[in-house]
Q: What sequence folds into this?
């Protein structure tokens, strides 16, 4: 426990155990990005998975939206401490996208339109835990929230759920992405409160 | 990252709703302009709440300054702008963030654009710029509700008189009589008119509420600025948070 702050009482909320440590609940959907919002028309949108040997698998918008779509309701947790419960998305499971990809890679770097990157272990994208989401709340995903499509990996802090995702590069070795290189945790598990490097 | 025990050394009002806390932080490792800290408050029963605040000051040994604006219902901001007093301890950790940073070895023109309390990390940049004697051409465009909402007003005016910094205010609700522009939101035309043009290849730092930053970043890219030179920091939801 930290040192007691004189006169501080605070406002406790009963969250039914759904909030990871240090998080608070929001009903808004805050936007956090490092730069301007890229506007990517679906006509020139493409998603690619590139293996460690350089083999490229890609989908244009028509091919992507023809894949089986799942409806997903999940809690999301931002490292800036807001959490939002029961957010409703639709998207394509990474299990589906990776099914035909032959790889022995253990890590992934997600690359976005606009230049953002974020890294994670490949197994975190499998087993029904990650999607490429293109709809939110029953509507096409807004550009501010990552549309046309974003990565959705809700069991990690939300900076891992790269907006405007364009490419997943499969890597034999882990490398830091944009925030990971700027002092944030390499893995980012909200339940272990892995916010910053060394947490 | 470790928690430091800081002590409130001084409190300075900035506006009717915001104040600057001067903290002494034994062991503080130093920081860069634009970085932030986490502030942790702990109740007697162990309940704690943490929020992030931008550092307002240039590096100065073990002293740092944060400026906190009251957010209605915000459990941390209302404490920091209310009960918190000189001599009280606070826990902080940081500095955090390595992207929304200006360094004195940057020589290119710099355009700072603030909405409301988004001025705080930009003020750290202005202070570091002034203290380092930087010759990078520096402009600030600062959008506020009215003259009473300006943070660091005297210091900004002094810097405008004594350095090459250019300061332009945009008043969204109350403009002083005879002001060059009627009250209203910043628009693309005014932004183009009163900021460095894209051909000067400035780096832009934009900080404020989400809707402000979204609009300004779109104006900037529309005016031809390279998106890679537009760095943004947005603060979050209007309700239920600090």
A:
């Amino acid at each position: 426990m930290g040192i007691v702050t004189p006169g501080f009482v605070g406002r406790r909320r009963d969250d039914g155990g759904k909030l990871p440590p240090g998080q608070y609940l929001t009903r808004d959907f805050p936007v956090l990005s490092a730069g301007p919002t890229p506007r990517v028309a679906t006509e020139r949108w493409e998603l690619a998975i590139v293996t460690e040997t350089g083999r490229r698998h890609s989908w244009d918008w028509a091919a992507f939206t023809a894949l089986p779509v799942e409806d997903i309701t999940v809690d999301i947790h931002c490292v800036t401490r807001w959490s939002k419960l029961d957010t409703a998305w639709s998207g394509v499971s990474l299990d589906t996208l990776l099914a035909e990809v032959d790889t022995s890679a253990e890590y992934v770097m997600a690359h976005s339109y606009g230049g953002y990157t974020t890294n994670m272990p490949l197994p975190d994208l499998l087993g029904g835990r990650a999607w490429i989401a293109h709809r939110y709340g029953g509507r096409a995903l807004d550009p501010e929230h990552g549309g046309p499509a974003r990565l959705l990996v809700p069991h990690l802090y939300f900076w891992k759920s790269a907006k405007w995702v364009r490419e997943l590069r499969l890597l034999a070795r882990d490398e830091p992405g944009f925030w990971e290189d700027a002092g944030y945790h390499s893995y980012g598990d909200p339940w272990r409160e892995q916010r910053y490097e060394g947490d | 990252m470790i928690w430091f025990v800081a002590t409130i050394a001084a409190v300075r009002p900035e506006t009717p709703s915001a104040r600057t806390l001067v903290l002494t932080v034994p062991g503080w490792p130093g920081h860069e302009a634009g970085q932030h800290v986490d502030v942790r408050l702990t109740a007697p029963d162990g309940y704690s709440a943490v929020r992030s605040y931008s550092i307002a000051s240039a590096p100065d040994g073990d002293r740092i300054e944060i400026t906190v604006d009251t957010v209605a219902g915000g459990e941390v901001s209302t404490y920091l702008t209310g009960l918190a007093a000189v001599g009280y301890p606070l826990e902080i950790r940081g500095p955090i963030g390595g992207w929304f940073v200006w360094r004195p070895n940057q020589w290119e023109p710099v355009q700072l654009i603030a909405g409301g309390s988004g001025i705080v990390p930009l003020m750290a940049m202005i202070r570091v710029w002034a203290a380092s004697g930087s010759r990078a051409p520096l402009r600030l465009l600062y959008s506020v509700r009215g003259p009473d909402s300006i943070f660091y007003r005297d210091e900004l005016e002094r810097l405008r008189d004594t350095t090459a910094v250019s300061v332009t205010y945009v008043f969204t609700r109350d403009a002083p009589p005879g002001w060059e522009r009627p009250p209203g939101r910043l628009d693309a035309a005014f932004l183009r008119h009163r900021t460095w043009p894209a051909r000067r290849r400035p780096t832009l730092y934009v900080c404020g509420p989400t809707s402000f930053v979204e609009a300004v970043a779109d104006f900037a890219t529309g005016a031809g600025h390279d998106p890679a030179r537009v760095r943004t920091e947005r603060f979050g939801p209007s309700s239920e948070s600090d």
About this structure: The interface with chain A takes residues 1, 3, 5, 40-44, 46-52, 75, 79, 83, 88-91, 96-100, 210, 214, 217-218, 220-221, 227-228, 230-232, 234, 236-241 of chain B (CB under 8 Å).
